[in-house]
Amino acid sequence: MIGEGAVQEAVHEVVQKAARGSEGTAARVVLVRHGETEWSRDGRHTGLSDIHLTELGERQARGAGTMVAGRSFGLVLSSPLERARMTARLAGFGDGEAGAGAETDADLVEWDYGPYEGLTSAQIAEEYGSDWTIWRAGTDGSPRPGETAEAVGERADAVLARISPVLERGDDVLLVAHGHVLRILAARWLGLPAVGGALLALGTGSVSELGYEHDTRVITHWNLAP
Questions:
Q1: Which residues form the active site (predicted)?
Q2: Which of 84, 97, 170, 226 is the most interior residue, by most CB within 10 Å?
Q3: What per-residue confidence (pLDDT) applies to 7?
């Protein structure tokens, strides 16, 4: 079991490296978080609810597309939820576009928050205490418990296993999904437990990149705004 202090130290090191950029020639994994929705704007937990993008969210999606324009991807995957699929389409990776269309992967859906769906952290804290966080408490002990961080981590591992052959042949991969699942996926890429994603802030419409420094998995860029 990796202690919280060790996780913080490891994440701090890779994020500092990401801020500087990391040179390398190996294939990369580009992460795009969907654009703003009304719920994300208001700080409401948005798991499996199919919420559409706001006008700002649509602009963010187009901006993310500009940031990755001209790059070639061996595989483009999107969460099947509409806010992610719309982001992929507006970024130039719409369904059915020859050679560029995003395939949906159910393992990229957002964390299932169970009874916390649609609530803000402040609303949840009123019932469970001011120190409540989804990362520490998860969704256990409720009538419909949803997922644990570890369960989301298992889905992230499945995505990493799926894209591994593409990376091994030297092709980049683009993933369009959601804040928490992408943060957890990045933590798992680094070999950290799923809860390591708690220390990786990720804004709507942001673009991040995972890669290698020599043979070590690293974050090459993180949370870049359109």
A1: 34, 110
A2: 84
A3: 55
Q: Are 62 and 91 contacting, i.e. CB atoms less than 8 angstroms apart?
A: yes
What order do you get walking across the sheet with 216-224 strand by strand? 103-104, 73-78, 172-177, 29-33, 207-213, 216-224
Q: Return the CATH number at 113.
A: 3.40.50.1240
- If you count them, how many residues does the chain have? 226
Nearest partner of 183 among 204, 162, 165, 213, judged by Cα = 204
Cα–Cα distance between 85 and 79 in angstroms, integer?
A: 7
Residues in Cβ contact with 144 at an 8 Å cutoff, skipping those fewer than 6 apart: 114, 115
Please identify every residue annotated as catalytic: 34, 110
Total domains in the fold of the chain = 1
pLDDT, average across residues 72-97: 91
Digit-coded pLDDT (tens) for 155-165: 999 999 999 99
Binding-site residue positions for substrate: 46-47, 83, 110-113
**Residue range of the domain that includes 55:** 4-224
